[in-house]
Predict the structure.
Amino acid sequence: MLDDPLQFISRLTVVDKRGRPVKLKPRAEQIAIIEALHAGDDVLVLKPRQIGSTTVVAAYFFWRWYTSKGPETYVVLSHKLASSRHILDIHKRFYKSLPPALQRPLVDDNSITLTLADTGSKLMAVSAEGKGGLRSFTATALHISEFAFSPDADELKATAISALNGGQLCIESTANHWGDPLHREIGLWESEEVDWNFLFFPWTDHLDYSEEPPIGWEHDEDIDIGREQQYWMSRMIGKLGESKFRREYPLSVDDAYSQVDGAWIDMDLLKDIQQCKFETDGGVFGKVDHADRYAIGVDTGAGTGGDYSALVVISASSGQPMEIRRSNRHTPTEWAEVVADCSRKWKDAKVLTESNGTWGGVVITELKHMSIPLWKDADGDDWITNAATKPKMLEALKDSLLRGQIAVLDTWTIGELRSFQIDDRGNPFCPRGGTHHGDTVIALALALQCSLKVSVPNKPFLPDWIVNRNTAHAFKRASKSEHRRY
């Protein structure tokens, strides 16, 4: 029994939905998780609600801890210690439910540690924000739950990887919103940039998600699921609403991230936009039109590998994006050079950079030294992003999308737009913890504001050779006129 994780786990005790202690009988989804963990893979799980993934991951690592023959360390990691302690309590319940003869002596049993006396093997609850964290030891395996909801997922993952030093990592979570930390990991796995064993369980695989419909209830034959599951689905949608149901009980990864409630942008506003796939640092959508004028919006980061700096060039006549640039490695001074080059390229395009924040003022100062045309308000002041101007500029952007004014964007910017949420006061915001902070969206919104102060000439553009030819013809006509006798 001790050599077989399934046999061992099926003898552990859990608490059911009614608060009663029952034996843990792994279902198909839980068995798949156990098998993936037992293969030694790093495991990433996108889960629907209530399939018991947290419990079964805890049970597997409890088995490894209990049967260890040396001083191994198994860690539950979360951003907040309270969350880690909650999962450690599941481990403690497993231990206390063992027959007394099987309860190996403990040398530590407190709110954050369980340590076996004979081997020194540990189960630990740790937070990423705790002082010292995991720096003082190496973890054999590590479990992160509800990763999609972490406010600082990059720090959480970095803490985990540095502590593991080649050990096993398991991340399991429900979806939160488009572009959340879990969504990013799935994207990295899809692009083969990371080597996860990715597990996804559509809710229809979970046999408990079904209910016998009443007599006379008619099911939809066009939906390819059985009557009992279809009736259960209709009841849950009645309780949760369709958007929340799809997020918490997805049939696909796209379903999990097809958020409507709480999202700032309705996906229908984005579906007709042509999407260009650029590298992360951006790209160009079109060529300079000498009959047009251009505006540039700029958002500036520190250039230390975290927050991105972004710029967007748009046509003043059409509002169409013409070029997008991003970098999280350029210092503000270096970024000012990139902005200046773009301004010169796009016919001395006017530039709007927010003056508040840590780095915007640096860029504005550098651009002034380079004689780049800058946006100013009626009083001659630079733009300040605040509680009044930010909703205004974002709503102007949303209105442009609603009217179909923006016809092309890159996939990165589309992802940023889908990430934006609405807070309790109805204001748009970009959640922390994803791949970005909405930097390109802010730059695009600033570019639209800048374009309002750019006038487009009515005269058609004529190339230099035509201008020179017309000038020569004019001189020639004038010369002939001077020599006329009548």
